[in-house]
Structures
1.
Amino acid sequence: MIDLLSYAFLGKPLWMWGAFLAVIVTLMAFDLGVLHRDEKELGVAESLWLSAFYISVAMAFGGYIWWSYETGRLITEDGTHAGIAYFTGFFIEKALSIDNVFVISLIFGFFAIPPKYQYRALVWGILAVIILRGIMIALGAALVQQYSWVLYIFGAFLVATGIKMLVVPEADPDVSKNPVVRFLRKRMRVTEQLHGQKFFVRQPDPATGKMVSFATPLFLALIVINVADLIFAVDSVPAIFAITTDTFIVYTANIMAILGLRALYFALAAMVHRFHYLKYALAMILVFIGLKIFWNELVGKLNPAISLGVTLALIAGGIIYSLWKTRDEPTAGTGKA
């Protein structure tokens, strides 16, 4: 048994992966099964407190990663400083996820999901993210290890994406034309109304009268949100691989950043429009990280502390400038600035 736990999987022993996933599953079970077992709307104050808790957990985990690296207990596959790489990846993913909040709010609005049911869908969504992000990161790691030139593709993609974000005006996505929504509605029985927090219900088939399973709009919203997350991951996963190719650091930074976003959603959803200018800071981060790949490969490894400092400076600058620029705009649903 000890030998099995010591078996290396994606560069780290199985016990390390198991310990991390155990922490995540425990947090999710406590959140979903204890804190939010009943149907209730998550208030802004509770949202902020819960988000602060998740961020504290992420910071504590990052501190452990930093300590483990400094004491020689954790060695990264590419020689990067594990602590700096983790925090850089965490802050990049956290900032990129703010854009996801706007899309999630549009999806909930389209399916007419009231706030008291939204949190349950978001928490179940994170369980799917843990699996889907893991698959994407494992595939990315395999590509990078087998073909190191893939990093150049990641770099060029990040630079192109960042420039596109800077010059192409944003357009609100039309959920009604989403191909996933159309596909599901054509191939699944879907109820017209919600049925509490249920994703599936049994009802008589209008054609035969037999009791059959129907999906609810809450289930459709859950699926579309997870598809949207995969689309966002196309940007965020290469960005963290540009910081480090250590699979464990890439995965843990990703999951820890997303974990608290579900809680923060209810505080951000009402004022996400006030973070409009953060988009430009994120675009510059993507360009910087993309160019960093070429610099590392062609010139020499850039000091990781510089990457962390530039990332934090751009994120902080984007948030502060956005809040200052939109200080006179009302918060959604309140009519107050």
Note: The CA atoms of residues 86 and 253 lie 6 Å apart.
2.
Amino acid sequence: MSDQALPAPEMGEPYLLTPGPLTTAFSTRQAMLRDWGSWDGDFRAMTRMLCDQLVAMAGDREGAFACVPMQGSGSFAVEAMLGSFVPRDGKVLVLANGAYGLRAAETMRYLGRAHTVIDKGDYMPPRGDEVGAALDADPAITHVFVVQCETSSGILNPVAEISEAVHARGRKLLVDSMSAFGALELDVTRIRYEAMVSSANKCIEGVPGFGFVIARTEALEAAQGNSHSLALDVHAQWAAMQKTGQWRYTPPTHVVAAFLEALRLHAAEGGVAGRGARYTRNRDVMVAGMRALGFETLLKDRWLSPIIVTFFCPADPNFDFPRFYAAMKARGFIIYPGKLTVVDSFRIGCIGQLDEHVMRRVVSAAGEALAEMGVDSAAPPDAAIAERARLAA
């Protein structure tokens, strides 16, 4: 337990209990007050520093990987990765258990590239043995795509066992670590993948504006000519940066400056281990408090990520999510609607400039909101419990 609370938002705005954009440190936002020339040597040095630090965070100690920042939101970077590393005659096995896996499949459809999907529904995790079986059954599959933390439900997918199954069969793994990188391990010395993608405004606690791909340099070299897009060509962006140190097109200069400050704070907290420990404590304190109020989590403890947690909405007829949302916002907390298709739910994020002290206030606010609405019990409907019982052991 930490006795030192993080400072409250400087401008008095609500905490963002979302999986990014999220509540950022004031010093991170202050870093955006200065203008930078995108072609200037100082900014090129900033880009080089950013890339070097991210590759080190991924665990590369042999110079086998490179970082390529890409303008735009996380979805831009995911499309860039899929379009650049999958050859036009390749085929992707997309592992989906929520909105972001399904979005990757939709991206492949737009790209007009061969793909197949293992769809586990809203929240069941894809497992290594079923991935292996799918690869054995279809030798045309060249790549496998997995989301490390599927924020639709908050599930932490078993990337390590999936990686083993993929590598053992000579295929290549692409990882969407959008809401996990920087807080959860994705060390290249322990988990084999060709490329992964994340975003500035997630666990490193920067602001929105760019994503980044960390990939094997041999995969980057082989990606030449694959891309369907001029602006989303990861190989072309990498080659230009190798040659000139510059982004090909106008970079989000202020966002890069903010990200470097966020990286400094990340290192000061203890890197991936330190950041992950705080988020885990946030989750544990918040989940325990919400359960004490009568709320039920969608997932069993073994699958709960320290990124975001899904709760079932109460069965009590007085419970109304829009009113609950408004009551939480009035108390200084912006939460997230649910994305489940079978039962009503909502989500509470654990990442950003939040600590266990904040999470205790979140629980208190939830209790006050229930009382304000006249909700006597936060217990979910029977259908929710039945749905949860389907979760894999």
Note: The first strand starts at residue 15 and ends at 16.
3.
Amino acid sequence: MRSLIFEPFSGAAGDMILASLIGLGADREKVRETIESAVDVSVSVGSVNKRGIEAVDVKVHATRETHHRHYYELVDVIKSAGLPAGVEQSALGVFAIMGEAESKIHGLPLEELHFHEVGQNDALADVIGSCFAFHEIAADAVLCTAVNVGGGKLKAAHGMMAVPAPATLEILKSSGLFFYGSGNRELLTPTGAALLAYFSKPVENIPRGRVVSIGYGAGDADTEDPNVLRSMLMDLRDTLSRDIIEVLETNVDDVTGEVLGNLFDRLLSAGARDVTITPTTMKKGRTGHIIKVITKPQDSDHVARVLMKETGTLGVRVIPTKHRYVADRRIEKVDVSIRGEIFEVAVKIAQDRTGEILHMSAEYEDCRKVAEKSRIPLKEVMRRVEEEAWERFA
């Protein structure tokens, strides 16, 4: 799978994303022509050395000063630019992410919302150029490791604010991107956050694969570490994570249902990852059960001891499994409206290493409480929660 991976160890801004994509192979002349035909700016693409790293440097020069724009003015600029359909759709999507974040922060509907910094022509140019470059690269998947947002304070239109800026933080919250703070200045801008949020899925580590090409996009900051955004095109070999487990198994024929019921909790507390108990017929026609436990190798001894103490079995078989494919999992929260009341419910999201979502499941305990309070059947609550989760995160 041909995947584009961002490593924002020194943050990300619109011009850095655009520059790194050009470094990966997006046609700089086509990018420049697209931007200049859509926005009243001129664009230069060169290179600069950032503390020993040669990086692509994109400069957007506004031919005239622009003031803040209302959200729908930006929409009109993009729709009237004559962009390819996919690029237009992406640019509108990126500004929608920023608009929703600003709307929530200021408590204003979109039609009353106006942008300061991100309403300028250079921000429009960064978004349109980056969207064009993303579509030209045409990766099968776009991934992003944890973003360094920087630290300290920044001067915004509304005064001094802590890093990250409120709009940036809201975008990070909605997107689920991983981030951390290091440094004494803003490293992740709202435009950079919105572009990453729109195009990429979060990953904790770089998946296994082969690097095809590398791009470095220069930022404007003068930092102790190179202020560049590194991107890679990779041919990923594994899209699912792997881990190493052992399967413990034993047969019992003289254990009551009450003991077996208690056994589940005892084994899970001891480190078991999963427990199954299957009825079976044993020698001399006696009824019994096969107990199977999945655990990590380092927990096997302790789990086996608990199994012996709780059931009285005299032996536990160990079935080593060198590799097990597993989905990466994370917990997110969704708000669901039921009978006029808003409930927050946890959802478990399973995805592969490219960020593609494989499954979503509502957490039972949260749904049970909602069902009890709203007097709605549990299965209907779970259906609504999962439907909302697919709408938000897929």
Note: The first helix runs from residue 14 to 24.
4.
Amino acid sequence: MENQTVRQVARISVGGNSVRVVLSNAFGEKPLTIGAGSVAMAGKGGEIDQATLKPLTWGGKSSVVVPPGAPILSDPIALSAEALSEISVSIFLPKKTALSSVHWDGVQTAYISGPGNFTSDAAFKADSTLKSRLFLSDIWVDAAPKSEAIVFFGDSITDGNCSTPDANNRWPDHIAKRLQEANRKVAVVNEAFSGNRVLTDGMGVNALARFDSDILSHPKVATVVLMMGINDIGWPGENAITPDDKQPTAQDIITGYKQLIDRAHAHGIRIVGATLTPFAETFKGLPTEGYYTPEKEKIRVAVNQWIRTGGGFDGVIDFDKVMEDPAKPGYLRDDYDCGDNLHPNDAGYKAMADAVDLDVLLGSAK
């Protein structure tokens, strides 16, 4: 990209009277130049509410250069935003810019302009769109005192793969709505990305390596919800994904969990484990159908048994039982399946969120 503007929309969980935007050059090999930026309440499509438009600044300046590997936090911007409202963030990229720090499965439209700086335009004429997050990492809100945050740490199922784009149907999105309806002052932070594994890099950095940057970097984190491990089980072996990777044992994955548990506890953070959902016949008929085998199912069952009874987690969410077809053990329910025997559809994601005991997320005393 060069001499183009990107406009993106994200829904916040808790409300406040000012926001700060975090942009990331985490995977960039060169400095990232932001020529200008703006924030506003989002309208339909790429439009914004012009009356709420505010320029972004960094140290009082209207442009900034982000070093390779670094995030950049904007100055606080006065913007009154209610809980569960959608905020639009626009950035102008004046120089030739590689799309390096990208969340590819964003399930949200990024609008990309033709040549020019359009960060202040109410309407936005997009030359192209992507369903990915480009450089936009976080939106911080000055929430009410004693607010806390939950970080959802996972893979494509927490990332919302297969959910309807631009509809906020990821299961953590539904949790955010439930928390607001219950008058809980709790921010929801989704730190999931499709393909993530506990032990091994692949479509991104493994969970053990990204724990500090993706969990501890957030303010006021009280709880982490871990739902990860199915890709550790499914990726290796005779398929078109990572055929040369060594198949981990259930104990290997459990050891990884224990590391994450210990690191969370060392920082005074509760950690809740979610069981791995059914995946029988995942990607059947595709070159990747080796993702599932009966032998891999045994690993999933053993891992889930430890999550439920191992005593390591501060709480457990049993999504396996919620999503399993009662007539076909090991299979995802047809009415919750988006079609690949692995990922839920919109109804499935809502069913997951509805099954969560909110007291488990932050403890019964909350």
Note: The chain has a mean pLDDT of 95.
